[in-house]
Amino acid sequence: MYVTFSTEYHRFNSIGSAVPAVVPSKSGPVRTIRSGAYLYREGDEVMHVYEVIEGVLRLTRLLEDGRRQVIAFGYPGDIVGFPSNGRHHTDCDALTEAKVRPYCSSALEDGTNNPHLQRALLEAAFQEISAMQDHFMMLGRKSASEKLASFLLTLCERAGNGLDCDDRITLPMSRADIADFLGLTTETISRTFGQLRKAGILRVEHIYTVVILRPDALRTTARGDDA
Amino acid sequence: MYVTFSTEYHRFNSIGSAVPAVVPSKSGPVRTIRSGAYLYREGDEVMHVYEVIEGVLRLTRLLEDGRRQVIAFGYPGDIVGFPSNGRHHTDCDALTEAKVRPYCSSALEDGTNNPHLQRALLEAAFQEISAMQDHFMMLGRKSASEKLASFLLTLCERAGNGLDCDDRITLPMSRADIADFLGLTTETISRTFGQLRKAGILRVEHIYTVVILRPDALRTTARGDDA
DNA sequence: CGGCAAATTGAGGAATGTCAAACTGTGTGG
DNA sequence: CCACACAGTTTGACATTCCTCAATTTGCCG
Known about the structure:
By secondary structure, chain A is of the alpha+beta class. Helix content of chain A is 34%, strand content 22%.
């Protein structure tokens, strides 16, 4: 099993957006998803919205020709599965064994019955929109090193308060996932990790474990104040 | 004055997302915004959420070093100004004279009083999230010509049923706006327009007016099935 | 008609992508 | 327990797309 990530409030560069825990009323029993299993797929009718309790989910979208975009990573505290026209618009699978709390989406139809849930979801959706706006800037206007540095910093914030010490980041996703999240290729991710390593900014302890040696330098890189 | 764009239901490549008209209760009087004037700025406390009635708004975000990302264009039927932590996270100004209908955001706090408004906003937010997911794919994984073609097609859908005939698109935004929306430069936009023109796919009748000569070819280009 | 901002065009360069090869680590079966 | 196999990662050489900078051109408004 993987580390358990903290369920903290969060507002930053979109790896999904965390929100204060949704009110428990109308939630189903916690559901466990094996690593690699799908929670839902694009086009599925939306029956539930899910709060991630533990583990990490991956939301992806595909183009007909196979190009892929990772839309977000769902960390504990995130809400995933927002419907649009009653359907899911991404695939969602688990990068690690994960636990989610389902909220029946039909409860939304009759908002009068469930103002608290509705309010919480609205807040979650707003957070998500804000996080996605950050990600736009990232995808559209940042260089490879800025993207990777920003991404690592965001992971630090989200995952940093778990079992890991503050500057040791566990990456539950592959290089390809990072690439598809940042709009780059795996080769570029790999080379950019190499640059950060050579600059003494981080150490790749293990493929899935990165230690941030110079957090300030990483922040500088993320802003593009250097090179 | 500019053309009036239709207020139609819509779900596509994010230029903002249209939603069925929000219930009129708790809405303020329609407000008119001069071309170029700001509706709100990043960091402002959110007092209202707005439904675009007429005209076109521009939502932008800036990086400290001046890099800009156009987050969305707000067309009639779109809801703009979703709060996150009670604040606006983009600037919003008008590309044309515009009319908006404000909805008091405090009405959201006491959801019990206004389930219909809350429900409508939730739906709008979901639409927005879906549209933004499309835009992710666009920013992260599409080439310049695919981006521009997709963008024009989306405008067609949104603006095509207004005063203009179906394949004549009025662009209320500058080349720089398009570039900042698509994550490109004005030069690339210009050159890409040139390519589409040379390919006989469209005619640039006027800087702000484009006629689509071969819609199918444009769709093909948008998907990247060519070249 | 002149002036200015926006758009276009051109030449050259930088960043990232592509393709191929080598490497690493992990799990499996002998 | 070791060797092998495989998937994922890294590295290298090269290609391509898009960007940058500069020069023109266009369109708009006084």
